[in-house]
Amino acid sequence: MKKMTGFLSLAVVLAAISCTDKKQKEQSIEVKNPKVIEVTVPAPPPPPPKTITIKLPPLPPPPPLPPKPKRKG
Q1: What are the residues facing 39 on neighbouring strands?
Q2: Residue whose C-alpha is closest to residue 31's, from 43, 40, 23, 22
Q3: 27 with 20: CB under 8 angstroms?
Q4: What is the pLDDT of residue 38?
Q5: What is the largest CA-CA distance in the chain?
Q6: pLDDT tens digit string along 30-67?
Q7: CB atoms closer than 10 angstroms to residue 31
Q8: Cα 30 to Cα 5: distance, rounded to the nearest angstrom
Q9: Most buried one in 6, 50, 53, 56, CB count within 10 A?
Q10: Once rounded to an integer, what is the mean pLDDT over residues 12-34?
Q11: How far apart are alpha carbons 23 and 36 in whole angstroms?
């Protein structure tokens, strides 16, 4: 069990490092002109898809059940 917890903590550390690397790469600042600073920011996520509600016509009532045959006895 000790090996497993060590492996998990290593995975968590590696995940944290890779996340910080991605953030630094996404927000890069390019200085081309001393007066103009361009900052590239990652694009916002796309909006969630719109839900479309389709109203179905009401179902017709079920046909009446045939009468049960009476048992003789």
Answers
A1: 29
A2: 40
A3: no
A4: 65
A5: 107
A6: 656 566 656 677 777 888 778 878 788 888 888 887 77
A7: 9
A8: 42
A9: 6
A10: 58
A11: 23
